[in-house]
Amino acid sequence: MYKPNSPWTWAFVGVTFVQAAIVLGFEAFCFAKFQGSLRGDLDDDLNVKSPSRTIPTFLALYIFGFLYQLLLVYDALRLKNTIQVIGLCIYNVGLLIYAAVQMDQIDEAIEQLSPAHIDASVWDVERPFLIAIPCIIGLGTVLMAVIAWKLYDEFAWTIYKHISADLKMKRRYLTFQIYIALLKFDFFFFLGFTIQFVVVVINHNNIEFYLTIAAIPVNIIILIMAGYFTRRENTPGMLVIITLYFAGLAYFLFKLVRMWQPGPRHDLYDPVRRPLTTFAVITVILIILTIVNACMCTANFGRGLKPHIAGRKLESEEEKFANHNMTEMPNYNNLGYGPGPGGAMGSRMTID
Questions:
Q1: Residue pLDDT, tens place only, 336-352
Q2: How far apart are the first and last CA of the chain?
Q3: Which helix (H) or strand (E) element contains residue 249?
Q4: In contact, 268 and 324? CB cutoff 8 Å
Q5: Which secondary structure element, helix H or strand E, spans residue 40, and what is its range?
Q6: How big is the chain by its Cα radius of gyration, in Å?
Q7: Could you tell me if 73 and 13 are in contact, meaning their C-beta atoms sit under 8 angstroms apart?
Q8: Which of 329, 347, 350, 349 is nearest to 338 (CA)?
Q9: How far apart are CA 40 and CA 51, in angstroms?
Q10: Side-chain half-sphere of 146: how many Cα atoms within 13 Å?
């Protein structure tokens, strides 16, 4: 099991953990306060049913976002993936933007639900916490960026020893790192969009609801197989995956246009139009970047990268010493056999 082994890896873990702990505490309080303040029958009126579902979904998804970030932090440090470390800083910026959207969304939901279904004073209680959350995330982003710069230097030497000084091979390895990191971020934003869409927008009696639910495990399998085919350098499999990426891109573009297109379904998106748009735009950008990197990775197949990425584990000097200490030749100087007062043998030995 991986354990941080340098001051900067510990610092990165510490900053993300403290940030997550504080923000999760504030989010949990806002979630509990909002849910505990609801009253009356919310199922009869669609105008109050959607906001009452939106905010719990919104807060729960945000909580999942920080827990997932902690998982990615551990994974990035374990693999010494500098691209994923940088990606986590950008991911934190995305959470910061989402925190700003969250404030307006909760304010509007309380206005729609009050006074019949919630006390308007709930906003006065939650507002300081909702203001503090972006401030904490902003500070965390700055600290993460500084530490990421230090980790870049720290991991660069380990990767150099692992890949060698071949510049072309290092570029291929960099492309692979970017692609694997994109797959991990794709998962969160796709899942976030789908959960909000299913819980708030779709009628449970509609066939679209079941198709959207079925798409969740299918997409998880696609992302897993994408990483597998890349490590195994399976060209036919990658061509299928890239084709599926284009299908996913068309799906999110269709949803994005549909959310803003005037028509009978336009009002259904009102409770979550802004957060859904945020997730859809980010997901579209990520899919485009994923397609580009998937093509680049496929073009690199058969060029010597496979041995470096198949079951790889980059080790620092300390880890190498711990793991290989028992296989090293003993130091005879310390056992009384070396040159000097403690030993009779010379510094060199010849075997006839």
A1: 444 444 444 444 433 32
A2: 46
A3: helix 235-260
A4: no
A5: none
A6: 26
A7: yes
A8: 347
A9: 14
A10: 7
Reading the block at residue 105, the tokens are 């969304």
Contact, 62 vs 19, CB < 8 A? no
For residue 19, what are the contacts with CB-CB under 8 A and spacing of at least 6? 66, 136, 137, 140
The C-alpha atoms of residue 350 and residue 332 are separated, in whole angstroms, by: 15
Token reading at 244: 């599926």
Q: What is the pLDDT of residues 40-62, one digit of tens each?
A: 666 555 555 566 777 777 777 88
CA distance 215 to 194: 9
Distance from C-alpha of 254 to C-alpha of 125, rounded to nearest angstrom: 39
Rounded to whole angstroms, how far apart are CA atoms 27 and 35? 12
In angstroms, the CA 173 to CA 230 distance is 12
The 8-class DSSP code of residue 223 comes to H
Burial class for 347, CB neighbours closer than 10 Å (0-12, 13-18, 19+): exposed
Tokens found for residue 17: 């953990």
CA 149 to chain centre: 19
Tokens of 163: 């890949």
Q: Counting Cβ atoms within 10 Å, is residue 254 exposed (0-12), middle (13-18) or buried (19+)?
A: exposed
Determine the angle formed by the axes of helices 46-79 and 82-113, rounding to 10 degrees. 170
Q: Would you place residue 323 in the very low, low, confident or very high pLDDT band (cuts 50, 70, 90)?
A: very low
Q: What is the pTM of this model?
A: 0.77
Longest dimension (CA), the chain: 98
Question: Which distant-in-sequence residues (6+ apart) come within 8 Å of 295 by Cβ?
Answer: 242
